[in-house]
Design a protein that fits this description.
alpha+beta, 4-stranded mixed β-sheet, 7% strand, 471 residues, two-stranded antiparallel ribbon
Length: 471
């Protein structure tokens, strides 16, 4: 029977996709996403916003609990474990980015890790079960964003993880919990009413909560659907349903699962080399190239000789922060990233510490920066470019341009560099043995018979021989 309802077709795909539908390309790409997300999540547990979210979540308790990553003695109900781990993932804006624009993994992976611990020990869920549910959650986000031209651009109104991430979370939870098509449809309807967070809270401590809430609300939607709570079964079909979030919303019925093509097969994700808004990575690469011209015969940047720094970038207001005053503002500042790269020649996690942001040399350079927004430089992660010109007081001008940076889906990080990023992110919290075990288990995830082995490693301490016995 031909399905005419968009919402029903989503439910059919969530319920109907099987492990056999996964392609090798999707498996390999999603393993990279999982590894990167675990790494930035562990790093994020060192942040102030994670600490505040964790302290808040301690007021909740239940008979069922799940791991808070890297905290072997700290457990929370699954919904709140997913919440605080989701906050950690996005706390530094270091997580992956997709096109159309969203951070796809952070709303999905914490859900599956938390629920896997809450399920009965039998039957065991395999690494392939994890990969399937993870990709179902990613796929739902991508399909929804492809229904609107607005979603192709860097967001202006809503933070996408709070919208599509919530439905991706619900889809992944529905899959791992084995919901029927009907219950999947109800879960999506409930999840839509949990969606949405304004971009006004970008560059604040509240923005990471968007990711945590997406993870938490997706689980809640599924649990409520399992209790027979009902919503509008046409919610994805309607302009007053999911269409309320995106202009030019034009939904289409999804293909039958038997003839399904994954979006991740066609569109890879971007992995960040430093923790800041993705658009700033073009700026960093361009500034690094200009810096080479400025240091041809000297060891340090000649700040006093610089008259003017011009950045030609898209008009993205929430990344236009001339004088950032916090780590979160600095991560969302074209100007700060350009000046830091010009001054230091690299950008790392400590680059966003308060003491670095307030350096007199940085402040002096920031005063010299101007922005221009060429009409052909559209605010899309798929097409934007950056030009930087630095004019010296003697009249000499040096200009460079970046159309793509290393880490973008057009120029992906090598597996070696992705693993190096993971090691750097988790090394302060985990032993070297545990780090290597995590790398091995994720690299061989499709062969893992019981993915509780992975959740056990996420607590922190390792069990000798665990990984090699399970893959």
């Amino acid at each position: 029977m031909k399905i005419k309802s968009v919402t029903e077709s989503f439910a059919r795909v969530i319920h109907g996709l099987k492990v056999g539908h996964l392609t090798n390309n999707v498996i390999q790409r999603s393993k990279r996403m999982i590894l990167d997300t675990l790494g930035v999540g562990f790093l994020g547990t060192s942040t102030e916003v994670f600490h505040k979210a964790s302290e808040y979540s301690k007021i909740y308790s239940s008979n069922i609990s799940s791991t808070v990553w890297g905290r072997p003695t700290f457990r929370l109900p699954p919904t709140y474990a997913a919440f605080v781990n989701g906050v950690a993932i996005h706390s530094m804006d270091f997580d992956d980015t997709w096109h159309p624009a969203t951070h796809p993994s952070g709303a999905v992976l914490p859900v599956l890790m938390a629920l896997s611990e809450a399920l009965p020990p039998s039957p065991k869920f395999s690494g392939l079960d994890l990969l399937l549910a993870f990709n179902v959650g990613i796929e739902v986000q991508g399909r929804l964003m492809n229904f609107s031209k607005e979603a192709n651009d860097i967001p202006k109104r809503f933070h996408p993880p709070s919208v599509v991430g919530t439905l991706g979370s619900a889809a992944a939870a529905s899959k791992i919990l084995g919901l029927s098509t009907t219950k999947c449809q109800e879960a999506l309807a409930i999840a839509v009413s949990h969606g949405g967070a304004p971009m006004a809270n970008a560059a604040t401590q509240t923005k990471p909560l968007h990711m945590g809430n997406a993870a938490r609300h997706g689980i809640e939607a599924v649990l409520l659907a399992m209790l027979d709570l009902q919503g509008n079964k046409q919610v994805l079909d309607m302009q007053t349903g999911f269409g309320a979030f995106y202009a030019n919303y034009s939904p289409e019925v999804l293909p039958n699962p038997d003839s399904y093509t994954w979006l991740l097969d066609q569109q890879d994700v971007a992995f960040k080399r430093f923790p800041a808004h993705l658009a700033t990575h073009w700026v960093a690469d361009t500034a690094a190239s200009v810096r080479k011209h400025l240091l041809t015969d000297r060891a340090t940047l000649p700040i006093d000789h610089i008259e003017r720094i011009v950045l030609r970038i898209p008009d993205v207001q929430y990344v236009n922060r001339p004088f950032p005053d916090s780590e979160h503002e600095a991560r969302h500042s074209f100007q700060y990233v350009a000046c830091t790269m010009l001054l230091d020649g690299s950008i790392t996690v400590p680059s966003f510490y308060k003491c670095q942001i307030n350096r007199p040399q940085v402040r002096e350079l920031l005063c010299k920066v101007e922005l221009e927004h060429p009409q052909d430089n559209l605010p899309s992660f798929n097409t934007l470019y950056c030009e930087i010109s630095v004019t010296l007081k003697d009249g000499a001008t040096f200009m460079e341009r970046s159309d793509t940076f290393y880490g973008h889906w057009r120029e992906p990080l090598s597996q070696e560099d992705l693993q190096a990023k993971f090691r750097a992110n988790v090394s302060s919290m985990l032993s070297s043995d545990t780090v290597e075990r995590l790398l091995e288990i994720v690299d061989n995830l499709e062969d893992l018979e019981d993915f509780s082995m992975l959740t056990t490693l996420l607590k922190g301490p390792s069990i000798p021989g665990m990984v090699r016995k399970s893959i």
